[in-house]
């Protein structure tokens, strides 16, 4: 994609992210990336499903990838957290 | 896949599912499907990431799909829940 349209899904209520995605597309974006880590992963999936089922039904999930990130724990040492990236766009 | 090798990820500790997947492959399965709904979705992603990073490093995530299921609430009416299916297998 020419510009990075990335929405980071965190701990807010899911409809905040649904609105953010819908706004991005309504402002002319061709694709939007939803990114989340750890427990927010299911909220990213919820966001994608709600957007394409209820708001922008011509959208599709073009790609989903997962990964692992290492982070430093407050008490020392490192832990791993899973990540997800969901690419939403118009299906041809 | 010729036989259905489906592991349903629920509320148990993630290592239970990691062990289940690893066992399936060690017993000769070519592909395994991880399925989860709602809050268990991030645990399914954790399972896939841990298996391929730490236990069976020749495995890859071949496909990830999401969906929406309707269920009946105890107090009446219906709600929607997001689902995920992660296909693990050997990359060619």
From TrEMBL, chains A, B:
Keyword Amino-acid biosynthesis annotated: no
Highest taxon of the lineage: Archaea
Keyword Membrane: no
Localisation per UniProt entry: Cytoplasm; Chromosome
UniProt feature coiled coil, ranges: none
InterPro entries linked: Alba-like_dom_sf, DNA/RNA-bd_Alba, DNA/RNA-bd_Alba-like
GO CC, one annotated term: cytoplasm
Keywords, alphabetical: Chromosome, Cytoplasm, DNA condensation, DNA-binding
One Gene Ontology term from the biological process aspect of the record: chromosome condensation
GO molecular function: double-stranded DNA binding; RNA binding
Domain DNA/RNA-binding protein Alba-like: 5-65
Record family assignment: Belongs to the histone-like Alba family.
Protein role: Binds double-stranded DNA tightly but without sequence specificity. Involved in DNA compaction.
Name used for this protein in its record: DNA/RNA-binding protein Alba
Origin species: candidate division MSBL1 archaeon SCGC-AAA259A05
Gene: albA
